[in-house]
Amino acid sequence: MTALVQHVLFVGAHPDDETVMVGGTFALLKARGVGTHVVCATDGQGGETGGLPEITTREMLATVRRQELRCAGNALGLDSVTLLGYEDPVVGPDETLFGFQADENTLVAQIVAQIRLIGADVVLSHGSNGEYGHPAHVQVHQATRRAVEQHAPDAVFYGVAALVPGVEDRLWNRDDPAHLALDITPWIERKHAAMLCHRTQHALFMRRRALQTVQQATRTIEAFHRFWPPVPDGELPDDPFAQLLLDAGARPGAEWGPARSGAPNPLETRA
């Protein structure tokens, strides 16, 4: 009998990472009866306020972003959301980004504890480049990878936002070629609903991609690179999570190929 995926855990650096990177996949997993869980390292108080007048301090922003994360969790049907409570550094001049202050061994131990508590057989986190180079994303990737490889080796570990050939996106981790990429359009409504929860980040979502609505800024491709156990060159992952994605319509990253001139951008939905 083929093993089934029981519980999938995403470990992220900030509120909204879970929605932007794997919101559609979580909606798929929910529809398949898989347990879905998020651990978020920081409260996101270093980010943007979105111009909301009720947010006048960093403490208030942290409170709002925690609420936004729980709203998104409800929209996606998550079974649990856990915040580790690390302080998110304020973005510096010229949008300089920083990691958060944490003892690496302590962070790894906290992630291991959550993997064991949840009984996660699949662990997802940021890619090795931190997507667009965000130091906190790299920090969480490295800690999560250590947690799985050294302390929970029976789980599989995938990085998200893996590079899809021929599809341009600043989010892709350039050193992590996608083993599998999924068009999450069939589950887009749940992802839209979760994106709408992150009100403080709406202006950022749209500004970075020069778009007019949050719906347009919702990515419709979610891509994965398996780090643990390593996948031999030229082969595809053969674990139950990979099979679930393939059954849902995912394709190997190499099959996406160069983008056709004039073809619609599959990363965007149209309002």
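^ that was protein a. below is b, sequence first then the tokens
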Amino acid sequence: MNQSVTSLVSKDDIAAFQRDGAICLRGAFKDWIEPIAEGIARNQREPGPYATNVVATGEPGGFFDDYCNWERIPEFAAVVRESPAAGIAAAVMQSPSAQFFHDHVLVKEPGTQKPTPWHQDIPYYFLDGEQTVSLWIPVDPVREATLRLIAGSHQWPQWVLPLRWKDDGNFYEDVSRYRPVPNPDIEPDMSVLEWEMEPGDAVLFDFRTVHGARGNLSTSRRRVLSLRWLGEDVRYAERPGKTSPPYPYHGMQPGQRLRPDWFPQIWPET
């Protein structure tokens, strides 16, 4: 790790990430709050083809969800390429490099009752590997609507059934390979990690870590940019249906590294 990354992520942080599948880094992006907030505002003004409101018609609040826009939103491109994100990702993944997968904007408006269901990210993706990390970065103070994660679930031998967020239906037709969606609030032997957060803090979690979030019943917005990173061991893998994001016409075959012209290596600089 170079000095700038060493000051943000410690050996204890790395050990906790490897053990629990999630950590919270305080103030790691305090110098990036304004550009991230500006990028989120631009994304909402100019939504991409995958943008959706997860809240159904007639339900209170709003939940803006969009991804794969970083190359057309200059504020996001700057965060990806110039912030400490890539170096931090490589450090906690214990990977000699960090390849960028995609951005994800999640905005829960005040009074939104809709929770984010418990899920893992990796069943939705066309990849396999143990060196993965998402950086979940709020630009608003977050209390009850913070991210919640099941400690150690990145080591579960069977993945959790992926659902469609809007209607909670099954994401794939074939559900035989998945375990039921857990409810750690009532199931024993599950430890939930959650942190109250300030703007510029970041929760880092493995793509395999089970996570969710409550609705936003506060009087303030909850705006988040999530950055998804890949390490050296990640390879393309097929899924039993259309993935999210879909990335049509990618041309990759099982076992290949993800194509670097679509998913660039940011750390170290090439």
